[in-house]
Amino acid sequence: MLKDLTNEKLVCLNIEARDWKEAIYKSAEPLLLAGKIKKSYIEAIINTIEETGPYIVITKNVALPHARAEYGAIESAIGIATLKKPVCFGSEENDPVKYIFCLSAHDNTSHLMALADLTALLERKDFYKMLDQAQSASEIISYINNL
Questions:
Q1: Catalytic status, residue 111
Q2: Pick from 15, 78, 94, 100: CA 20 to 30 A from residue 9's CA?
Q3: Which CATH number fits domain 2-145: 3.40.640.10, 3.20.20.140, 3.40.930.10, 3.20.190.10?
């Protein structure tokens, strides 16, 4: 479940980023600091986007950056980040991105239930409103835990 893979330390609000690369680095940094990923994981995300395009922009205003486990996923986790000013990733359909959910999956299955929970949240307008209005990470985690 989503609440099992995220916590207040993995939430960043109102990140300032000049471009999509900086947005990836800053949104993934809490996972790096928490020991969930290695720096090579962040680099793999960026390299993959440069090679294959903005496939991580999964719906309007939302990116789900991730890479293969062997590039440095230590533990499954999901970081939640909002951008102060949305940035473009090159997705004609879904840019600009304002919400980033950085995924670390250390195997092929442990994160699937959490992704299902996240997908359900992304269909709720009140979730985006809460993300926009949240003043602290604890508000976001409380919202998720009370679903």
A1: no
A2: 94
A3: 3.40.930.10
* Domain boundaries along the sequence of the chain: 2-145
Which tens digit of pLDDT belongs to each residue from 78-123? 999 999 999 999 999 999 999 999 999 888 777 778 889 999 999 9
Asked if 31 and 24 touch (Cβ cutoff 8 Å), the reply is no
Reading the block at residue 29, the tokens are: 């940094």
Model confidence at 129, in pLDDT bands (50, 70, 90)?
Answer: very high
Using a 10 angstrom Cβ sphere, with 0-12 exposed, 13-18 middle and 19 or more buried, the burial of residue 108 is: exposed
Given the residues 54, 64, 65, 66, select the one marked as catalytic.
Answer: 66
CA 44 distance to own-chain centroid? 15
Dist. CA 92–CA 73, nearest whole Å: 29
What is the tens place of the pLDDT at every residue in 63-72? 999 999 999 9
Mean pLDDT of the chain: 95
Q: What is the pTM of this model?
A: 0.95
